[in-house]
Amino acid sequence: MPRNDAVPTVHCLRISKTGTTTLKTLIADNNIRRDIKACNLSLHGHKVSMPEVLQNPNNNVAFFLREPLARFVSGFNHRASDEPRRQNAINNKETKVLKHFATPNDLAEALTSPNEVTQDRAYLVMSVQMHARLHYTDWLVGAGYLESRMHRITFIGFLESYAEDVRRFLRILGVERDIEIPHERRSADSSPRELSDLAQQNLRRWYADDIAIFEWAMQRRLAAESPPSGPAPAEAAGPPAEPESATAEVLAGSRSDG
Prior knowledge:
By secondary structure, this protein is α/β, with parallel strands linked by helices. It has a single domain, classed as Rossmann fold (3-Layer(aba) Sandwich), CATH 3.40.50. Helices cover 46% and strands 8% of the residues. It has 14 helices and four strands. Strands 2-1-3-4 form a four-stranded parallel sheet. Helix 1 links the parallel strand 1 and strand 2. The longest helix is centred in the C-terminal third of the chain and has 18 residues, at 208-225. The chain is elongated, with a radius of gyration of 20 Å. 32% of the residues are buried.
């Protein structure tokens, strides 16, 4: 689809371990760009942040989130597996420090280990391991910043309700075709996912700002899903005014079936 300067450009941020790589592949494999009518769509790599995008007043953003502790576990298992070594040749420092922790739970518990060597290794992993060191704040700044830029947010989706949210996002973009979502057919692997109480406590401290962002987004969705407390305003009966963004509509997407 040729770029149309008369409509906004929606920039989909690529926040790691939130399903955006799958979304990018889905759009390419199904030639979805030809169906997008409501805006221009720009898909980014991991290094582009929301403040960078919003320097242009014609830009809006879209992004997906995932519960931060689940994102940590997924990131650990991904980097500890053989697959990324074949694809990306993980740097030697990350490989060396990862070998000290067999599971994400081991790493998370080690953040408060009484053994200084173990704790230092854990801090080193958290500072060099790709997914662990990248926080939501690297892309989204913080909950207060997001609240102040609500009118520039076109869509927020969640991995926990991925299939429905991707469909909703595509409808907002003007895509009317029914697209099969890969995550619907993905079976659970055998990677370790359990976190002890201590591990969860340590990670909640480590990712406190990310948790604040995730909770802000969930509260926004719940507020959008709640029925209005009073009668609709009189002007609602007439033709709707053109909104600054589609945030309120999009945030009312379906909760996870699981």
